[in-house]
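Session log. Operator J.P. requested a structure for one protein chain; no other inputs attached. Running the standard single-chain path with token output.
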Amino acid sequence: MDTDATDATGATGATAGTGGPGGPARSGGGTAAPDPLADLLRLLDLERIDRDIFRGQSRFAVVPRVFGGQVAAQALAAASRTVGEDRLAHSLHAYFLRPGDPDAPIVYTVDRIRDGRSFTTRRVVAVQHGRPVFHLSASFQTHEEGLEHQDGSAPDVPDPETLPSSADLLPRHAHLFGDPGVADRLAQARAAVDLRYVTDPPYLTAGRPREPRSRIWFRVDGKLAGGNDRPVLHRCLAAYVSDMSLLEPVLLAHGRGGWTVGDVVGASLDHAMWFHRPFRVDEWLLYDQSSPTSQAGRGLGSGRIFTADGRLAVTVMQEGVVRVPRG
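Structure written below.
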């Protein structure tokens, strides 16, 4: 059955904090919203322009292209709008085809590939300026009881409340980015999410190769309540955050400071997620990330997202372009 925006994503009527991704949603260039999380929720509340066609706007990004996590989250929201409330996404597989234009709307067309008794399959193509920029396939399932196990436990890490937030760290180390404005733009781009690094981010250890592993606590900076407290929206927001740092372990292995300090050039190529167990993105989640390999101008990132009580909630994989600029 079809569902409207509130039924599918609950992305209306936000109850959100005012903390420290994102800046203003854009429609030909807007003004900053007073609440970054409320602005992010509006970004996921897509405009339906036909039965299976939706339109989304974009938000501020550090680089002059649409943030990949935004497109993935919006595409998942669009697919979810064509699926009954009794079915939640259990996996998605996506390809980033072209850089998105942050000053132009993105049109999402959903193909209803299959509606089975237990599983539903959707394909989404995101288009800008008449050309596809992103492609996603997602599978949805009704709730079902079954065999359950988890290989290993969550890493033993410090409590997130004992760690500085990314919003605290960035102003202290703005000098590492060359242009001081870069740290401000990065902080603005992450303003709706509270990120707390367990291990140092790449910009703090540039020039010193280390284990290709990064661990980050995260949650959205505010409480999701009312129409926003729906499992599908938590999945869409997890898709948004999952693209923020997954390739950083590639940089750590080679002592590179990051995309924003100019010593590497990168872009996401593909992205896959598997949703295993219920979770809330307004409660602390631990993102355990690693990189098994890099080669041929590409790097592979692998991530596991755990709840605070140690349950494996999501598995993420991504390959991206990772190139060293020629002097």
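Operator note: The two ends are 56 Å apart (CA to CA).
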